[in-house]
Design a protein that fits this description.
The chain is mainly α. The two termini are 31 Å apart. Helix 1 runs antiparallel to helix 2 and helix 3 packs antiparallel against helix 4. It has ten helices and no strands. The radius of gyration is 17 Å and the shape is globular. The chain has one domain: Up-down Bundle (AhpD-like).
């Protein structure tokens, strides 16, 4: 199970996605932990069983057990936060931003890995989940922590490509004819 298996499964019309999937995972300037944590967190954010299955094993080969758990935690906490903060923003009443969220988020303060790596994974998941408020918040923490815009952009590219891979493969599975009954 691997990036290569996903590339092989992508149909001809998704050649750009296939090439980008190879590129974002093989030419990254991110550290191995940043790269594979981003890949795993993004795979989980897509909710695609096939993409998760293929990428989790390869991520596991490149991450410590602690980093693997932290990437899962980033996907989990952002699944909650992205809904809450996107909704409070989209309502259009600024009063909601002044109210305490009253949601437990302790993993953000103590993720078990380098804080900037965890923030990078949260940013990438927030891109998939479409939460502008979370994107702004995590990007600020990353920039204040010294991460360059180019490295932040790499995480966004990974999010985009992993998401496109999942969308394409899930759509192909849905379009496939059902097996004939016997």
């Amino acid at each position: 199970m691997s990036v290569d298996a996903l590339k092989a499964a992508l149909p001809g019309y998704a050649k750009d996605t296939k090439l980008n999937l190879g590129s974002v995972t093989s030419t990254s300037q991110l550290s191995d932990q940043q790269l594979w944590g981003t890949v795993l967190a993004c795979a989980l954010a897509t909710r695609s069983a096939r993409v998760i299955g293929e990428l989790a094993e390869e991520a596991g080969d490149n991450l410590s057990a602690e980093a693997f758990e932290a990437a899962k935690a980033a996907a989990s906490i952002m699944a909650m936060n992205n809904v809450y903060y996107r909704a409070t923003h989209l309502i259009g009443d600024d009063t909601y931003a002044t109210l305490p969220a009253k949601l437990r988020m302790s993993v953000i303060g103590r993720p078990g890995v380098d804080k900037l790596d965890f923030e990078l994974w949260c940013l990438a998941v927030s891109a998939i989940n479409g939460c502008g408020r979370c994107l702004e918040s995590h990007e600020k923490v990353l920039r204040d922590g010294g991460l360059s815009r180019e490295l932040i952009q790499e995480a966004l590219r990974i999010a985009a490509v992993v998401n496109a891979t999942a969308a394409t493969l899930d759509a192909e599975a849905a379009l496939a004819p059902a097996p004939a009954s016997v």
